[in-house]
């Protein structure tokens, strides 16, 4: 599923029957405030946002949380990059609450309002070993990513 370049879209919803997906790519949606994929149980990967060099570049200017993934119980790779308004990553909390196995790789970079400490706590609780977490609020400011990486 690719959700990209929707200048007037405010909510991603209406996928009540969707249980399994290979992947979600989400960026350049400046007015989207929420993503509601409440029935989604399994994903191989999710990429919300992108970053380039040392700057946020997701253009997800209104997306403040990721609370719409309440049923998610399995995912291999998570990337949250450069989301300018993201303040919480409830997708991680949903995985913990649902007893999900640890994702094999988690990358969370340059989300200026997202607490790096809370991200590490959730990843510790999930048992995630391979992680790249930097450039978030209150965290390690030294972080470089390449566009599309």
Structure in words:
- With 149 residues, the chain is α/β, with parallel strands linked by helices.
- The chain is 13% helix and 29% strand.
- It has 2 helices and 10 strands, in the order E-E-E-E-E-E-E-E-H-E-H-E.
- The protein has helices at residues 90-97, 116-126, and strands spanning 2-4, 11-12, 20-27, 34-35, 42-48, 51-52, 55-56, 74-81, 105-109, 131-134.
Summarize the structure.
The chain is α/β, with parallel strands linked by helices and 149 residues long.
Describe how the helices and strands are arranged.
Layout: E1 2-4, E2 11-12, E3 20-27, E4 34-35, E5 42-48, E6 51-52, E7 55-56, E8 74-81, H1 90-97, E9 105-109, H2 116-126, E10 131-134
Parallel strand pairs: 1-3, 2-4, 3-5, 5-8, 8-9, 9-10
Antiparallel strand pairs: 6-7
Helix pairs in contact: 1-2
Features:
single chain; 149 residues; alpha/beta; six-stranded parallel β-sheet; two-stranded parallel ribbon; 2 helices
- The ordered string of helix (H) and strand (E) elements is EEEEEEEEHEHE
Count of helical segments?
Answer: 2
Radius of gyration (CA) equals 14 Å
Give helix % range: 10-25%
Strand content: 25-35%
Mean pLDDT: 92
Class from helix and strand fractions? alpha/beta
Number of DSSP-assigned strands = 10
- Across the major sheet, the strand order is 1-3-5-8-9-10
Which regions contain 5 or more consecutive residues with pLDDT less than 50?
none
Intertermini distance: 18 Å
Specify the overall morphology.
Answer: globular
Q: Can you summarize the main beta sheet? A: 6 strands, parallel
How many individual domains? 1
